[in-house]
Write a structure and sequence with these properties.
- This protein is mainly beta.
- Strands 1, 2, 4, 5, 7, 11, 12, 14, 15, 16 and 18 form an eleven-stranded mixed beta sheet that branches.
- A hairpin with a 2-residue loop joins strand 15 and strand 16.
- The two termini are about 20 Å apart.
- About 45% of the residues are buried.
Length: about 280
């Protein structure tokens, strides 16, 4: 696939990570009032194909954590950290996992873009992590404002691009679709099951994998693995039978055209070496 040459740049944080004011303003994506704010933010994005480096390779500037059971901005146990130029998810300061699912949110919402993430799973899963979370993480897109999440909420209402690593045997694709608090349309039908596998190969061990997500508002979302399309769907929307989605439904359009981007911590260590975004017209 042909792509223009990459000239990455870092995006400076417009607010301190310790402040919640950004999310009050950037409620951009999660409230009807902020819908117009989000459109202004999206319109202000570069119109060119210039790549925006969401992760600058040095620190967590521009990102803010939300870990279940803790306040927004509290990075319990340094779950999210930067070492050796990598954005790492680690649990060495946990005794047990105890369902402390976490998400690291980028400070600005987006609507139409191509996101590129390079990741690898490493090490062993922490004690107390659920069996399904072995070599399991994710990229959450079209997500809710984390300032609207309940303290004990496990996952933001969002579309999840699920990242999986293979077990010793058996097929286990990556860049799957999961839908916490949401539904999508696939092959012309409303898809209500929680997770749908992609057609990607299985990646075992600590191999680096490149996942890209082409997001065109509410129109179409495509998942790519190492340059190949592995999944496609349309019309992401709230699942109004889900209690977390119902709680924000008065502030969020049912049909989701944009939202936050976040990276998961689900009990297995993972490294990210690139998180880059190209705005689309």
């Amino acid at each position: 696939m042909h792509r223009p040459p990459l000239h990455p740049r870092s995006v400076p944080a417009s607010t301190s990570l310790s402040r919640r004011s950004f999310f009050a303003a950037a409620g951009a994506t999660v409230s009807a009032v902020a819908g117009s704010s989000f459109r202004r933010s999206a319109a202000a994005a570069p119109a060119s194909s210039e790549v925006i480096r969401l992760f600058n390779g040095r620190d967590l500037q521009g990102w803010i954590p939300k870990i279940r059971g803790y306040r927004l901005g509290e990075n319990f146990g340094r779950t999210f950290r930067v070492e050796d130029g990598l954005l790492k998810v680690r649990y060495d300061q946990y005794d047990r996992f105890d369902e402390r699912f976490g998400h690291l949110f980028f400070e600005k919402p987006f609507s139409r873009y191509r996101l590129r993430v390079e990741y690898r799973f490493v090490g062993e899963q922490i004690e107390g992590g659920p069996g399904w979370a072995f070599r399991n993480s994710g990229i959450m897109i079209h997500g809710q404002d984390p300032a609207t999440m309940a303290v004990d909420q496990k996952f933001p209402v969002s579309i999840e691009v699920q990242l999986l690593g293979g077990r010793a045997n058996g097929r286990r694709p990556t860049a799957n679709l999961c839908t916490p608090g949401t539904h999508v349309v696939m092959n012309g039908k409303l898809l209500k099951r929680h997770c749908t596998n992609s057609t990607s190969p299985t990646f075992r061990g600590d191999e680096w994998v490149t996942v890209e997500v082409e997001v065109r508002g509410n129109e179409r979302i495509r998942h790519y693995v190492n340059g190949k399309v592995v999944l496609e769907y349309t019309q992401p929307q709230l699942d109004l039978d889900d209690p977390d989605a119902r709680r924000i439904a008065d502030r969020v359009p049912t049909m989701l055209s944009g939202g936050t981007i976040s990276l998961q911590s689900e009990s297995h260590p993972i490294d990210f070496r690139k998180v880059e975004l190209t705005p689309l017209p």
